[in-house]
């Protein structure tokens, strides 16, 4: 049962039969105490990730799953002003001062604003999801600022929003209050009971019900990775190919990745998971939260031009993409080898806001991207970020028992982009 305070009154949400007459009597007797607790900043409510069942022991209790960004500054910052700006970030966004604690399952305990202290060196304290703040900072003697945020609290878009606000707050700007992540939760609940959600479930059952896995990836190994750089000159070729096809660079980059994997594995039918920002309302664009989700694209690469195929598949998927991935899982369960992810084995991401990750702060230069590791049970993944110079940088990671020789895979990928297939 979820309990919250709204306009001085207690509100609740519970499955049928849970909120009994005896429970109602108990809550009425404790009404004043509960209102004081809830309105005092320590209210219990589910976050998006809890709502979708994504918070578990490994993600919430373990000091892991963090996103780290490092910035080379042109000189020493005003430490007092920088700490004040970081502290204000935590005060503005409740997800950064939230503890994820076990209360018959995981619950979300929002703490009052708390200070952020910059430690010396290059390694900030690793934030723990049960002990706010979920944002930590370090500053080295050579003026490299390193920020670490727990991944349970933010998606990629949130990182860009935080960095934009950090530069503004350091400069002394007064920013309007951001929308609460709780509004996203309520909108998602309303969507899940709508006819549109039911139609999306039917679409995904039909589209993915018989999707095969890659044929060579049955035995888990250890992840291997190589850096990938698409220089600005090659990126211009990609953008020109996309414009000629009436599509986006994302489509061209993914189509080339699919072609390379098809050549390496012999598979022409594969399901690719693409991370998306689960933001379907105008206010969500200004909300810091763990609103990331996955969009599944089934690539049947033997049925025509791969760029046109990926373009159509992406449009169709986005029309039904508001359905959360966890809901989709309950209906779609194609055959996969034991130890592998039950629905997909390939990940692809083009984070189109890489240039926004750099705060307007002492000519900051991004020194380290927040690249997420290849997920457990995954076969292969490619993550790319755009760069201020117009290129793309990132990482290619694959299960070593599945696809070896990543240097060759990377070379084939770049050659395919240059040939605009």
UniProtKB/TrEMBL annotation:
Pfam families the record matches: Condensation (PF00668), TubC_N (PF18563)
InterPro entries: CAT-like_dom_sf, Condensation_dom, TubC_N, TubC_N_sf
Domain annotation Condensation: ranges: 140-352
Domain of life: Bacteria
Positions of the TubC N-terminal docking domain: 2-39
The name this protein goes by in its record: Condensation domain-containing protein
Natural source organism: Allokutzneria multivorans
């Amino acid at each position: 049962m979820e309990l919250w305070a709204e306009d001085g009154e207690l509100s609740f949400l519970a499955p049928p039969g849970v909120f009994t007459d005896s429970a109602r009597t108990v809550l009425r007797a404790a009404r004043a105490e509960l209102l004081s607790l809830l309105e005092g900043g320590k209210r219990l409510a589910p976050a998006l990730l809890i709502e979708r069942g994504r918070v578990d022991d490994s993600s919430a209790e373990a000091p892991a799953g963090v996103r780290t960004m490092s910035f080379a500054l042109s000189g020493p910052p005003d430490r007092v002003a920088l700490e004040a700006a970081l502290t204000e970030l935590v005060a503005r966004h409740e997800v950064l001062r939230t503890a994820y604690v076990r209360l018959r399952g995981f619950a979300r305990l929002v703490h009052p604003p708390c200070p952020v202290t910059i430690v010396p060196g290059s390694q900030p304290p690793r934030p723990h999801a049960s002990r706010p703040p979920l944002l930590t900072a370090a500053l080295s003697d050579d003026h490299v600022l390193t920020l670490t945020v727990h991944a349970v609290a933010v998606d990629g878009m949130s990182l860009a929003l935080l960095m934009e606000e950090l530069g503004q707050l350091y400069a002394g700007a007064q920013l309007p209050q951001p929308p609460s992540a709780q509004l996203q939760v309520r909108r998602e609940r309303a969507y899940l009971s709508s006819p549109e959600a039911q139609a999306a479930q039917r679409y995904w059952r039909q589209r993915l019900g018989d999707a095969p896995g890659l044929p060579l990836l049955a035995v888990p190994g250890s992840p291997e990775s190589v850096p990938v750089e698409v220089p600005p000159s090659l990126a211009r070729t990609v953008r020109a190919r996309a414009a000629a096809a009436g599509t986006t660079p994302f489509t061209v980059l993914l189509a080339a990745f699919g072609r390379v994997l098809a050549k390496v594995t012999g598979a022409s039918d594969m399901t690719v998971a693409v991370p998306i920002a689960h933001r379907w309302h105008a206010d969500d664009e200004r909300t810091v939260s763990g609103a990331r989700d996955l969009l599944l694209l089934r690539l049947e690469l033997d049925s025509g031009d791969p760029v046109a195929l990926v373009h159509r598949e992406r449009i169709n998927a986005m029309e039904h993409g508001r359905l959360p991935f966890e809901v989709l899982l309950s209906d779609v369960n194609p055959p996969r080898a034991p130890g592998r992810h039950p629905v997909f084995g390939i990940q692809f991401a083009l984070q189109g806001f890489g240039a926004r990750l750099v705060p307007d702060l002492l000519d900051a230069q991004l020194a380290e991207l927040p690249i997420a590791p290849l997920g457990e049970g995954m076969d292969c993944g490619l993550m790319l970020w755009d760069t201020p110079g117009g290129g793309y940088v990132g990482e290619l990671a694959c299960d070593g028992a599945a696809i070896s020789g990543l240097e060759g895979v990377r070379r084939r990928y770049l050659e395919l982009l240059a040939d605009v297939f």
